[in-house]
């Protein structure tokens, strides 16, 4: 029997991204590290502004001025994607072996191009297909992602489709070259619950059929519960906790992760008010020298004046960056409600 390759398909090591603004240097990512194994799904979770989309943009080589990668490394199957040689390697991979579903399909699709033109362009660029072959395969891709009457949809423009259909078009574009890695940046944003479930079922089906590795960016823990095996929690440009999805929902140790789980509504909850995390994330123009979550944390002590490293949690349940981490106060069985499947 052939052993699976232990090398992660994607690995970030102490990645740092800064933005040079008129007000000063904004440190968007501050030493982000994680690894994604082949065929697995890793969720990046956190509030808006925590650095999730910046991480995805860095992986895809989309950080542009005034932004720049200022430290760390991005590895694809053990080989760097930074530096002159790495940039050439990344250019060959982008769109073909790793692709991305962007957050808002209405602004990601060209309003002046038909759906068919989008699909044809991608395949001609990366696969070298003729226009006719690319058009025929484009219709097959639309059918594969569940769009009815694909031949007619090929001639339509983005504004003629619903939000859910536009998101399916984005997924069709992302899988057109049969990539190994799919980055999905908030793929269910602005969709109603039924369509959200359908899109998630589609991603799960594609992963099973194509052997995709998926990096899912979301703030919705219900999405994580239904699709992901591993979770990395981001706060203020850092990874503050990692672990298996079940472990994080049942044994979260970082106070921020605990707050996120508590803030997720449950069908069994009879309280009149939703739970929230007091305060607001710190600005990254002048980030705290110690623990970034300390001003909002109920467990703060004097040790929090120093920045905590990401270290292994007892019992092998992932890792956390907290001096005073302790298991969550809720029952281990508690976890966000998984979204219904409409497959």
In angstroms, what is the radius of gyration?
Answer: 21 Å
Question: What are the low-pLDDT stretches, counting only 5+ consecutive residues below 50?
Answer: 330-343
Mean pLDDT across every amino acid position: 86
Strand content: 15-25%
Count of DSSP-assigned helices? 11
Taking the alpha carbons of the first and last residues, their distance comes to: 34 Å
Structural class designation: alpha/beta
Morphology: globular
What profile does the largest beta sheet have? 8 strands, mixed
Features:
globular, 343 residues, 4-stranded antiparallel sheet, 8-stranded mixed sheet, alpha/beta, 11 helices
Notes on the protein architecture:
The chain has a domain at 106-176. It is 31% helix and 22% strand. It is built from 11 helices and 12 strands. An 8-stranded mixed β-sheet has the order 6-7-8-3-9-10-12-11, sandwiched between helices. It has a 4-stranded antiparallel β-sheet with strand order 2-1-4-5. Strand 4 and strand 5 form a beta hairpin. The longest helix has 18 residues, at 193-210. Mean pLDDT is 86; it is low at 330-343.
């Amino acid at each position: 029997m052939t052993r699976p390759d232990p090398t992660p398909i994607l690995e970030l090591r102490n990645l740092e991204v800064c933005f040079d603004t008129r007000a000063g240097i904004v440190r968007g990512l501050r030493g982000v590290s994680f690894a994604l194994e082949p065929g697995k799904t890793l969720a990046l979770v956190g509030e808006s502004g925590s650095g999730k989309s910046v991480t995805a943009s860095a992986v895809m080589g989309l950080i542009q001025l005034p932004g720049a990668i200022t430290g760390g490394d991005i590895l694809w199957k053990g080989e760097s994607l930074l530096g002159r040689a790495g940039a050439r390697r990344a250019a060959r991979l982008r769109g073909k072996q790793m692709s991305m579903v962007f957050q808002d399909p209405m602004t990601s699709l060209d309003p002046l191009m038909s759906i068919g033109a989008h699909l044809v362009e991608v395949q001609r660029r990366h696969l070298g297909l003729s226009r006719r072959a690319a058009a025929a395969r484009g219709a097959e891709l639309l059918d594969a992602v569940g769009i009815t009457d694909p031949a007619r949809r090929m001639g339509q423009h983005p504004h003629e489709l619903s939000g859910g259909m536009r998101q399916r078009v984005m997924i069709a574009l992302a899988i057109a070259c049969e990539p190994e890695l799919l980055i999905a940046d908030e793929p269910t944003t602005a969709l109603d619950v039924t369509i959200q479930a359908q899109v998630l079922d589609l991603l799960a089906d594609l992963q099973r059929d194509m052997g995709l590795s998926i990096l899912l960016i979301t703030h919705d823990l219900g999405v994580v519960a239904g699709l992901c095996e591993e979770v990395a929690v981001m706060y203020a440009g850092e990874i503050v906790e990692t672990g298996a999805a079940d472990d994080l929902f049942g044994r979260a140790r970082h106070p921020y992760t605990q707050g996120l789980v508590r803030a997720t509504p449950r069908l069994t909850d009879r309280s009149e008010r939703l739970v929230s995390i007091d305060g607001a994330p710190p600005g990254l123009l002048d980030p705290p020298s110690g623990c970034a979550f300390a001003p909002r944390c109920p467990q703060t002590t004097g040790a929090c004046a120093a920045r905590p490293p990401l270290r292994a949690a007892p019992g092998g349940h992932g890792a956390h960056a907290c001096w005073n981490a302790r298991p969550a106060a809720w029952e281990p069985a508690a976890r966000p409600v998984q979204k219904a499947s409409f497959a």
